[in-house]
Design a protein that fits this description.
The complex is a heterodimer of chains A (417) and B (169). With 417 residues, chain A is of the alpha/beta class. Chain A contains 13 helices and 18 strands. In chain A, the strands form five sheets. In chain A, strands 4-3-2-5-6 form a five-stranded parallel β-sheet. Chain A has a five-stranded parallel β-sheet with strand order 16-15-14-17-18. In chain A, strands 10-9-8-11 form a four-stranded parallel β-sheet, covered by helices on one side. Chain B has a seven-stranded mixed β-sheet with strand order 4-3-2-1-5-6-7. In chain B, strand 3, helix 5 and strand 4 form a beta-alpha-beta unit. Classes of the chains: A alpha/beta (417), B alpha/beta (169).
């Protein structure tokens, strides 16, 4: 019987011929934490009998959620993380370099890798054909110590993509549509495996957006094949040597197959307070917004800023809207500056904040007021997510976000003149 | 399987899709290295009065997809610190499930429609049966993988690894 991508990778790494439902122990190729989960991970590690890391050069601490630090407690947490890096020789990515998932894609993830991170959006690296998933601090502490973890081999959903996105429609609209269709727990414990004739049309930036949100349907991983698009990305990142093609077997067994024609998609929005509360943008036109947030591991890449800049160039944001822009990494920021996107956004009235998670998790840099409405390019709209349980978060694409910043209300980017 | 395999307490009922942001909001990230202070905010965005009302031994009873969202293990940690002895839900999100077991906090998957807030429950962890004493009905919970049962019976993943030195399947 043929194997899914998940079964292939877990079989290869564990050295055991596995199928969905099996429990396996596998080595891990990359283990990481970020600054809000790292301190507990380190305390758990210190409670174990281990004092050294299995693989320090494949263990990374990313300081990205609270940068620059908004208060002394988090500054002390950052000191604690730096001290652990000095003690163990692991890699530390300092504040300002960018969001862990973006930096994993830029610098670490390779096709066929197993990647575990103390952050639920670790699934993002599935865009590069890695089996990547988020775990809690205890699991990551043990992965740091032993260099391995256990998995239940997931059943897979095949998401078969055809067609081509229409203008102003993107991978964010696709993944919101998909989550709306299967539900916030529709893929719990499962793998979402993307394939189909549309693959050459979907660049790595778009694949990262889709894989990133697999967890919002409950999935363990959201994984893409490794193909020519992957190879070109790895070449550009200086990791050509890490390229290997990966495709599911033609006779692999899937629990479900879903077909989506990209040509038929339209701009979508997830309404408060769950990500599967999805509707077409055009059915929500006219909802007034107070803040627009463009950034995050979902949509803070150069391609996203390019779309926003193309809409906002030589225009002004609506006077009742605050536009906050956070590039996903320093590399993204530098590229977007070179290409003039940042200048266009700032001229339109955007407040630029440093590369990092910024307003997404409600700590700082754009906490919402009571009854305020934010349209965000992030991945979560849970009650309280942006720091205030009395606020409302809508999720959409960079195009919808930029169009809405211009008009002051939720706006279908296709309707702009 | 566990030393205290009979749990008794009162049910606190919650709905579907209770996220980790409702269990322990991200805006308290600065308290994460101070668990006793952090735990004062347990379930705050789902029920502001929960932290005051919950008593040792009580249960969180929820609908589907409990604990969706962030990987923060602080979520089951503060629930455990509040005195809750087990979570019952019709389904739980993947990362939360592993995190709860890794913290030594039992999670039982069962038909929670038959439990209301205030119901007195008695749970036998060895057999996985739940007696709703208030309603006089008995429920059974779904099976969990052996590796998770073993981790739970050692009180969490770190004690398990300290005992066995490795995963044993």
């Amino acid at each position: 019987m043929g194997k899914t991508l998940s079964e292939q990778i877990l079989s290869e790494k564990s050295g055991v011929d596995v199928t969905a439902g099996d429990i396996v122990i596998t080595p891990v190729d990359l283990v990481f934490v970020q600054d809000t989960t790292g301190p507990l991970t380190i305390r758990q590690f210190k409670e174990s009998k281990h004092s050294s890391l299995a693989n320090p050069q494949r263990s990374v601490i990313f300081i990205d959620h609270a940068v620059p630090s908004p208060n002394r407690q988090l500054s002390n947490d950052h000191q604690f993380l730096r001290q652990f890096a000095r003690e163990t020789g692991c890699i530390i990515s300092e504040g300002g370099q960018g969001i862990c998932h973006q930096l994993v894609a830029e610098n670490f993830a390779n096709p066929g890798d197993i990647i575990v991170g103390a952050d639920s959006h670790t699934v993002t690296a599935g865009a590069l054909g890695a089996f990547a998933t988020g775990m809690g601090s205890s699991d990551i502490a043990v992965a740091l110590a032993l260099g391995k973890t256990w998995f239940r081999v997931p059943e897979s959903f095949k998401i078969n993509l055809s067609g081509k996105f229409q203008k102003w429609v993107s991978s964010k609209d696709l993944v919101l549509y998909l989550i709306g269709k299967i539900g916030a727990d529709g893929a719990t414990y499962k793998a979402l495996e993307f394939s189909g004739e549309a693959m050459p049309e979907i660049c790595i930036s778009q694949r990262l957006t889709i894989a990133n949100m697999a967890v919002e349907a409950g999935a363990k991983v959201g994984i893409f094949p490794s193909d020519e698009v992957t190879r070109e990305f790895l070449v550009a990142q200086g990791r050509a040597i890490k390229y290997r093609p990966l495709q599911p077997d033609a006779d692999a067994e899937y629990e479900q197959t879903l077909a989506i024609n990209l040509s038929e998609l339209e701009p979508m929005v997830a309404k408060p307070h769950t990500v599967d509360n999805v509707a077409p943008v055009q059915t929500l036109s006219g909802i007034k917004i107070n803040q627009v947030f463009i950034g995050t591991c979902t949509n803070g890449r150069v391609e996203d800023l390019a779309i926003a800049a193309s809409i906002l160039k030589d225009k002004k944001c609506h006077p009742d809207v605050r536009l906050v822009v956070a590039p996903a990494s320093r590399h993204v920021l530098a590229s977007a500056l070179e290409l003039g996107y940042i200048q266009a956004l700032v001229a339109a009235g955007a407040t630029l904040v440093p590369p990092g998670c910024a307003a997404c998790l409600g700590l700082h840099q754009g906490v919402l007021g009571d009854k305020e409405v934010c349209l965000s390019t992030a991945n979560r709209n849970f009650k309280g997510r942006m720091g205030n349980p009395e606020a409302f978060i809508y999720l959409a694409s960079p195009a919808t976000a930029a169009a809405s910043a211009l008009t002051g209300e939720i706006t279908d980017p296709r309707k702009l003149k | 399987m566990m030393a205290d395999s009979i749990l008794k307490g009162k049910a606190f009922k919650f709905g579907d899709d209770i996220s980790t942001d409702q269990i322990i909001p991200g805006r308290y990230a600065q308290l994460r290295s101070n668990p006793p202070e952090l735990a004062k905010h347990v379930m705050e965005d789902a029920d502001q009065t929960f932290a005051q009302k919950v008593k040792p031994g009580d249960f969180i009873v929820a609908g589907k997809n409990f604990g969706l969202g962030s990987s923060r293990e602080h979520a089951p940690l503060v629930i455990k610190m509040s005195g809750v002895s087990a979570i019952l839900a019709s389904s739980v999100a993947r990362i939360f499930f592993r995190n709860a077991i890794n913290q030594g906090l039992p999670v039982l998957i069962c038909d929670t429609d038959k439990i209301d807030s205030g119901d007195e429950l008695e749970i036998n962890l060895t057999t996985g049966t739940i007696l709703n004493k208030t309603k006089g009905i008995r429920l059974t919970s779904g099976k969990i993988p052996k590796v998770m049962l073993d981790i739970l019976s050692e009180g969490g993943l770190i004690p398990y690894i300290n005992k066995y030195g490795d995963f044993k399947l």
